[in-house]
Amino acid sequence: MKGTGIISGNGDEQRTLVVVFLRGGADGLTLVPPVGNSDYYKVRPTLAVPEGEILKLGDSNCGLNPALSGLHEIYRDGGLTVAPAVGSNDDTRSHFYAQDLMEHGGQLAGGWLGRFLRYREGRPPSALSAVALSKAMPEVLRGAPAATVMESLDTFSLGSGSGSTATLQAELGTLYGSQENILGPAARDTLQALERVEKLRSEDLPPENGADYGDDSFSRGLRQTARLIRARVGLEAVSLDLDGWDSHFAQEALITPLMTRLSDGLAAFYRDLGKLMRSVTVVVMTEFGRRVAENSSFGTDHGRGGTMLVMGGGERGNVLGEMPKLETGILVGPGDIPVVTDYRDVLKPILTRHGAGKAMGEIFPEN
After folding, report:
1. CA–CA dist 359, 353 (Å, integer)
2. 251 falls within a domain
3. pLDDT of 35-71, one tens digit each?
4. pTM as predicted
5. Positive or negative CA dihedral for 284, 131, 99, 357?
6. Is residue 193 assigned to a domain?
7. Domain residue limits at 76
8. Taking a C-beta distance cutoff of 8 angstroms, is the pair 64, 259 a contact?
9. Distance between CA 351 and CA 158 in Å, rounded?
10. Which of 157, 184, 235, 365: CA 20 to 30 A from 170?
Protein backbone atom coordinates (compact mmCIF):
# COMPACT_ATOMS: atom_id res chain seq x y z
CA MET A 1 0.00 0.00 0.00
CA LYS A 2 1.37 3.41 -0.93
CA GLY A 3 0.60 6.29 1.42
CA THR A 4 -0.45 9.69 0.16
CA GLY A 5 1.82 11.45 2.62
CA ILE A 6 3.45 10.80 5.92
CA ILE A 7 1.55 11.66 9.08
CA SER A 8 4.43 13.22 11.00
CA GLY A 9 5.61 15.30 8.07
CA ASN A 10 8.98 13.59 7.76
CA GLY A 11 8.76 13.36 3.99
CA ASP A 12 11.27 11.20 2.17
CA GLU A 13 13.69 11.32 5.09
CA GLN A 14 11.62 8.87 7.13
CA ARG A 15 13.76 6.16 8.71
CA THR A 16 12.68 3.28 10.93
CA LEU A 17 14.76 1.53 13.59
CA VAL A 18 13.61 -1.96 14.57
CA VAL A 19 15.05 -3.33 17.82
CA VAL A 20 14.81 -7.10 18.32
CA PHE A 21 15.69 -8.27 21.83
CA LEU A 22 16.63 -11.93 22.31
CA ARG A 23 15.59 -12.30 25.93
CA GLY A 24 17.25 -14.93 28.05
CA GLY A 25 20.89 -14.41 27.09
CA ALA A 26 21.46 -15.89 23.62
CA ASP A 27 24.63 -17.95 23.27
CA GLY A 28 26.90 -15.93 21.01
CA LEU A 29 29.27 -18.89 20.46
CA THR A 30 26.42 -20.82 18.88
CA LEU A 31 24.93 -17.98 16.83
CA VAL A 32 28.39 -16.76 15.77
CA PRO A 33 30.87 -19.60 16.36
CA PRO A 34 34.64 -19.10 16.10
CA VAL A 35 36.56 -20.38 13.09
CA GLY A 36 39.89 -22.17 13.49
CA ASN A 37 39.77 -22.25 17.29
CA SER A 38 40.67 -25.65 18.77
CA ASP A 39 39.86 -24.52 22.33
CA TYR A 40 36.23 -24.11 21.30
CA TYR A 41 35.92 -27.81 20.53
CA LYS A 42 37.77 -28.86 23.70
CA VAL A 43 35.34 -27.09 26.05
CA ARG A 44 32.22 -27.82 24.02
CA PRO A 45 32.45 -31.48 23.06
CA THR A 46 28.71 -31.78 22.30
CA LEU A 47 27.61 -28.18 21.63
CA ALA A 48 30.32 -26.84 19.32
CA VAL A 49 29.21 -26.17 15.74
CA PRO A 50 31.26 -28.43 13.44
CA GLU A 51 33.75 -26.26 11.58
CA GLY A 52 32.69 -27.67 8.23
CA GLU A 53 29.12 -26.45 8.84
CA ILE A 54 29.97 -22.88 9.90
CA LEU A 55 28.86 -20.29 7.34
CA LYS A 56 31.97 -18.21 6.77
CA LEU A 57 31.98 -14.42 7.01
CA GLY A 58 34.72 -13.47 4.58
CA ASP A 59 38.17 -13.96 6.10
CA SER A 60 37.07 -13.19 9.67
CA ASN A 61 37.71 -15.57 12.56
CA CYS A 62 34.02 -16.27 13.12
CA GLY A 63 30.99 -17.33 11.10
CA LEU A 64 27.25 -17.94 11.35
CA ASN A 65 25.43 -21.02 12.59
CA PRO A 66 23.94 -23.02 9.68
CA ALA A 67 20.47 -22.37 11.19
CA LEU A 68 21.05 -18.69 10.27
CA SER A 69 21.42 -19.40 6.55
CA GLY A 70 18.85 -16.72 5.67
CA LEU A 71 20.96 -14.12 7.44
CA HIS A 72 24.07 -15.41 5.70
CA GLU A 73 22.45 -14.64 2.35
CA ILE A 74 21.79 -11.10 3.57
CA TYR A 75 25.44 -10.81 4.65
CA ARG A 76 26.53 -11.89 1.17
CA ASP A 77 24.13 -9.31 -0.27
CA GLY A 78 25.90 -6.63 1.78
CA GLY A 79 23.05 -6.02 4.21
CA LEU A 80 24.28 -7.51 7.50
CA THR A 81 26.95 -6.61 10.04
CA VAL A 82 27.93 -9.16 12.69
CA ALA A 83 29.46 -7.99 15.99
CA PRO A 84 30.96 -10.68 18.26
CA ALA A 85 32.03 -10.18 21.89
CA VAL A 86 29.53 -7.36 22.50
CA GLY A 87 27.98 -6.49 25.83
CA SER A 88 27.55 -4.02 28.66
CA ASN A 89 29.57 -3.31 31.79
CA ASP A 90 27.19 -5.47 33.86
CA ASP A 91 28.98 -8.32 35.58
CA THR A 92 26.09 -9.60 37.74
CA ARG A 93 25.01 -12.11 35.06
CA SER A 94 21.43 -11.45 36.21
CA HIS A 95 18.81 -11.44 33.45
CA PHE A 96 16.74 -8.70 35.06
CA TYR A 97 19.58 -6.36 35.95
CA ALA A 98 21.42 -6.89 32.66
CA GLN A 99 18.28 -6.33 30.57
CA ASP A 100 17.39 -3.16 32.47
CA LEU A 101 20.92 -1.80 32.16
CA MET A 102 21.07 -2.49 28.43
CA GLU A 103 17.59 -1.14 27.69
CA HIS A 104 18.15 1.97 29.79
CA GLY A 105 21.56 2.62 28.23
CA GLY A 106 23.20 2.66 31.66
CA GLN A 107 22.01 3.40 35.18
CA LEU A 108 19.48 5.93 33.94
CA ALA A 109 15.78 6.58 34.03
CA GLY A 110 13.92 5.68 30.86
CA GLY A 111 15.13 3.76 27.82
CA TRP A 112 17.76 4.80 25.29
CA LEU A 113 15.27 4.44 22.43
CA GLY A 114 12.76 6.59 24.29
CA ARG A 115 15.43 9.26 24.82
CA PHE A 116 16.36 9.10 21.14
CA LEU A 117 12.76 9.82 20.16
CA ARG A 118 12.51 12.62 22.72
CA TYR A 119 15.75 14.42 21.88
CA ARG A 120 16.49 13.62 18.23
CA GLU A 121 16.40 16.61 15.95
CA GLY A 122 13.77 17.99 13.69
CA ARG A 123 10.53 16.04 13.88
CA PRO A 124 7.44 16.19 16.08
CA PRO A 125 6.22 12.79 17.31
CA SER A 126 3.24 11.13 15.67
CA ALA A 127 0.73 8.67 17.13
CA LEU A 128 2.73 5.83 15.60
CA SER A 129 6.27 7.19 15.97
CA ALA A 130 7.09 4.25 18.24
CA VAL A 131 5.38 0.87 18.43
CA ALA A 132 6.04 -2.03 20.79
CA LEU A 133 4.60 -5.23 19.39
CA SER A 134 4.11 -6.66 22.84
CA LYS A 135 1.73 -6.98 25.77
CA ALA A 136 3.54 -4.31 27.80
CA MET A 137 5.77 -1.30 27.26
CA PRO A 138 9.43 -2.43 27.04
CA GLU A 139 11.97 -0.55 29.13
CA VAL A 140 13.87 0.57 26.02
CA LEU A 141 10.91 2.81 25.03
CA ARG A 142 10.27 4.31 28.47
CA GLY A 143 10.26 8.08 28.27
CA ALA A 144 9.34 8.29 24.58
CA PRO A 145 7.08 11.29 23.84
CA ALA A 146 4.64 8.95 22.09
CA ALA A 147 4.61 5.15 22.06
CA THR A 148 1.92 2.62 21.27
CA VAL A 149 1.81 -0.91 22.68
CA MET A 150 -0.14 -3.46 20.64
CA GLU A 151 0.05 -7.17 20.03
CA SER A 152 -1.23 -6.73 16.47
CA LEU A 153 -2.77 -4.17 14.15
CA ASP A 154 -6.18 -5.58 15.07
CA THR A 155 -5.86 -4.15 18.58
CA PHE A 156 -5.10 -0.59 17.39
CA SER A 157 -8.63 0.76 17.06
CA LEU A 158 -11.31 2.70 18.91
CA GLY A 159 -13.47 -0.36 19.40
CA SER A 160 -15.06 -3.37 17.73
CA GLY A 161 -17.44 -3.11 14.82
CA SER A 162 -16.52 -1.16 11.71
CA GLY A 163 -19.73 0.90 11.69
CA SER A 164 -19.47 2.13 15.27
CA THR A 165 -15.73 2.78 14.90
CA ALA A 166 -16.22 4.83 11.73
CA THR A 167 -19.00 6.86 13.36
CA LEU A 168 -16.93 7.55 16.46
CA GLN A 169 -13.89 8.56 14.39
CA ALA A 170 -16.02 10.93 12.31
CA GLU A 171 -17.48 12.52 15.45
CA LEU A 172 -14.03 12.93 16.99
CA GLY A 173 -12.73 14.38 13.73
CA THR A 174 -15.47 17.01 13.83
CA LEU A 175 -14.80 17.72 17.49
CA TYR A 176 -11.06 18.25 17.07
CA GLY A 177 -11.03 19.50 13.49
CA SER A 178 -10.91 23.17 14.36
CA GLN A 179 -9.04 22.93 17.65
CA GLU A 180 -5.79 24.90 17.61
CA ASN A 181 -4.63 24.11 21.14
CA ILE A 182 -2.17 21.32 21.91
CA LEU A 183 -4.89 18.64 21.82
CA GLY A 184 -6.10 19.44 18.32
CA PRO A 185 -3.05 18.44 16.22
CA ALA A 186 -2.38 15.40 18.41
CA ALA A 187 -5.97 14.17 18.11
CA ARG A 188 -6.08 14.73 14.33
CA ASP A 189 -2.76 12.92 13.97
CA THR A 190 -4.07 9.94 15.96
CA LEU A 191 -7.29 9.78 13.95
CA GLN A 192 -5.34 9.85 10.70
CA ALA A 193 -3.16 7.00 11.98
CA LEU A 194 -6.30 5.03 12.86
CA GLU A 195 -7.59 5.55 9.31
CA ARG A 196 -4.34 4.27 7.83
CA VAL A 197 -4.30 1.20 10.06
CA GLU A 198 -7.97 0.48 9.32
CA LYS A 199 -7.15 0.57 5.61
CA LEU A 200 -4.24 -1.81 6.19
CA ARG A 201 -6.55 -4.25 7.96
CA SER A 202 -9.23 -4.08 5.28
CA GLU A 203 -6.84 -4.50 2.33
CA ASP A 204 -4.50 -7.08 3.96
CA LEU A 205 -2.15 -6.98 0.98
CA PRO A 206 0.35 -9.85 0.66
CA PRO A 207 4.08 -9.33 1.26
CA GLU A 208 6.07 -8.04 -1.70
CA ASN A 209 9.03 -9.43 -3.68
CA GLY A 210 8.04 -13.03 -3.02
CA ALA A 211 8.61 -12.79 0.75
CA ASP A 212 7.13 -15.67 2.74
CA TYR A 213 6.65 -15.09 6.47
CA GLY A 214 6.14 -17.92 8.95
CA ASP A 215 3.09 -18.15 11.19
CA ASP A 216 4.96 -17.68 14.47
CA SER A 217 4.43 -14.52 16.54
CA PHE A 218 7.88 -13.12 15.70
CA SER A 219 7.32 -13.39 11.95
CA ARG A 220 3.82 -11.95 12.26
CA GLY A 221 5.27 -8.99 14.14
CA LEU A 222 7.84 -8.37 11.42
CA ARG A 223 5.19 -8.60 8.70
CA GLN A 224 3.03 -6.04 10.49
CA THR A 225 6.06 -3.80 10.90
CA ALA A 226 6.70 -3.94 7.15
CA ARG A 227 3.07 -3.03 6.47
CA LEU A 228 3.27 -0.02 8.79
CA ILE A 229 6.48 1.16 7.14
CA ARG A 230 4.85 1.00 3.70
CA ALA A 231 1.77 2.83 4.97
CA ARG A 232 3.98 5.83 5.90
CA VAL A 233 2.37 6.39 9.28
CA GLY A 234 5.47 8.12 10.69
CA LEU A 235 6.92 4.95 12.20
CA GLU A 236 10.40 5.67 13.59
CA ALA A 237 10.99 2.91 16.14
CA VAL A 238 9.70 -0.62 16.70
CA SER A 239 10.44 -2.99 19.56
CA LEU A 240 9.98 -6.76 19.24
CA ASP A 241 11.06 -9.61 21.50
CA LEU A 242 12.06 -13.16 20.72
CA ASP A 243 12.09 -14.96 24.06
CA GLY A 244 13.40 -18.29 25.29
CA TRP A 245 17.21 -18.15 24.98
CA ASP A 246 18.06 -19.17 28.57
CA SER A 247 19.73 -22.45 27.64
CA HIS A 248 21.00 -24.10 30.85
CA PHE A 249 19.68 -27.48 29.70
CA ALA A 250 19.63 -29.28 26.34
CA GLN A 251 20.76 -26.12 24.55
CA GLU A 252 20.89 -27.45 21.00
CA ALA A 253 17.28 -28.67 21.05
CA LEU A 254 16.14 -25.45 22.71
CA ILE A 255 17.74 -22.73 20.59
CA THR A 256 18.07 -24.28 17.13
CA PRO A 257 14.35 -23.64 16.41
CA LEU A 258 14.76 -20.10 17.77
CA MET A 259 17.70 -19.43 15.47
CA THR A 260 15.68 -20.70 12.50
CA ARG A 261 12.74 -18.48 13.49
CA LEU A 262 15.04 -15.46 13.85
CA SER A 263 16.76 -16.05 10.52
CA ASP A 264 13.66 -16.89 8.50
CA GLY A 265 11.69 -13.97 9.93
CA LEU A 266 14.39 -11.39 9.25
CA ALA A 267 15.08 -12.81 5.79
CA ALA A 268 11.39 -12.48 4.87
CA PHE A 269 11.33 -8.92 6.24
CA TYR A 270 14.45 -8.00 4.23
CA ARG A 271 12.98 -9.44 1.03
CA ASP A 272 9.54 -7.91 1.64
CA LEU A 273 10.85 -4.35 2.02
CA GLY A 274 13.39 -4.58 -0.79
CA LYS A 275 14.83 -1.12 -1.53
CA LEU A 276 13.06 0.32 1.51
CA MET A 277 15.66 -1.51 3.65
CA ARG A 278 18.05 1.33 2.80
CA SER A 279 16.13 3.48 5.30
CA VAL A 280 15.27 0.71 7.76
CA THR A 281 17.76 -0.64 10.30
CA VAL A 282 17.20 -3.80 12.34
CA VAL A 283 19.30 -4.26 15.49
CA VAL A 284 19.36 -7.67 17.18
CA MET A 285 20.69 -7.68 20.74
CA THR A 286 20.67 -9.76 23.92
CA GLU A 287 21.49 -8.99 27.56
CA PHE A 288 24.63 -11.16 27.75
CA GLY A 289 26.28 -14.20 26.22
CA ARG A 290 26.89 -17.62 27.76
CA ARG A 291 29.79 -19.34 29.49
CA VAL A 292 32.42 -20.65 27.07
CA ALA A 293 32.42 -24.21 28.43
CA GLU A 294 29.27 -26.32 28.25
CA ASN A 295 27.85 -27.63 31.54
CA SER A 296 26.96 -31.17 32.60
CA SER A 297 23.36 -30.72 31.38
CA PHE A 298 24.42 -30.13 27.75
CA GLY A 299 23.70 -26.43 28.16
CA THR A 300 25.56 -23.25 29.01
CA ASP A 301 25.38 -20.88 31.96
CA HIS A 302 25.22 -17.07 32.09
CA GLY A 303 28.27 -15.31 30.71
CA ARG A 304 29.47 -11.90 29.51
CA GLY A 305 30.32 -11.15 25.87
CA GLY A 306 27.49 -11.90 23.44
CA THR A 307 26.56 -11.02 19.88
CA MET A 308 24.77 -8.20 18.07
CA LEU A 309 23.51 -8.20 14.49
CA VAL A 310 22.69 -5.13 12.40
CA MET A 311 20.66 -5.47 9.18
CA GLY A 312 19.86 -2.90 6.49
CA GLY A 313 20.01 0.87 6.84
CA GLY A 314 23.34 1.36 5.13
CA GLU A 315 25.19 -1.72 6.40
CA ARG A 316 27.84 -3.11 4.08
CA GLY A 317 28.15 -6.75 5.07
CA ASN A 318 31.05 -6.86 7.51
CA VAL A 319 32.25 -8.12 10.88
CA LEU A 320 32.75 -5.52 13.60
CA GLY A 321 35.90 -6.47 15.48
CA GLU A 322 36.83 -10.10 15.88
CA MET A 323 36.16 -13.06 18.11
CA PRO A 324 38.59 -13.18 21.06
CA LYS A 325 40.70 -16.27 21.56
CA LEU A 326 39.17 -18.72 24.01
CA GLU A 327 42.28 -19.17 26.12
CA THR A 328 42.28 -19.25 29.91
CA GLY A 329 44.28 -16.05 30.29
CA ILE A 330 41.87 -14.09 28.09
CA LEU A 331 38.56 -15.28 29.54
CA VAL A 332 36.97 -13.33 32.38
CA GLY A 333 35.25 -14.40 35.59
CA PRO A 334 34.45 -18.11 35.76
CA GLY A 335 35.27 -18.57 32.07
CA ASP A 336 33.45 -16.02 29.92
CA ILE A 337 34.17 -14.23 26.68
CA PRO A 338 35.27 -10.69 27.55
CA VAL A 339 33.24 -7.72 26.34
CA VAL A 340 35.42 -6.27 23.61
CA THR A 341 32.80 -3.88 22.16
CA ASP A 342 30.30 -1.92 24.24
CA TYR A 343 26.81 -2.28 22.77
CA ARG A 344 26.39 1.51 22.84
CA ASP A 345 29.31 1.86 20.45
CA VAL A 346 27.39 -0.31 17.98
CA LEU A 347 24.22 1.75 18.46
CA LYS A 348 25.69 5.26 18.23
CA PRO A 349 26.44 5.35 14.48
CA ILE A 350 23.04 3.79 13.82
CA LEU A 351 21.25 6.46 15.84
CA THR A 352 23.31 9.12 14.07
CA ARG A 353 22.06 7.82 10.72
CA HIS A 354 18.53 7.95 12.07
CA GLY A 355 18.76 11.60 13.05
CA ALA A 356 20.23 11.77 16.55
CA GLY A 357 22.25 14.81 15.55
CA LYS A 358 23.69 16.55 18.62
CA ALA A 359 21.45 14.59 20.98
CA MET A 360 23.85 11.69 21.57
CA GLY A 361 24.92 13.15 24.90
CA GLU A 362 21.29 13.01 26.03
CA ILE A 363 20.72 9.51 24.67
CA PHE A 364 23.87 8.01 26.17
CA PRO A 365 25.13 10.46 28.79
CA GLU A 366 28.53 9.66 30.22
CA ASN A 367 28.12 7.93 33.56
Report:
1. 12
2. yes
3. 999 999 999 999 999 999 999 999 999 999 999 999 9
4. 0.89
5. positive
6. no
7. 11-155+211-363
8. no
9. 33
10. 235
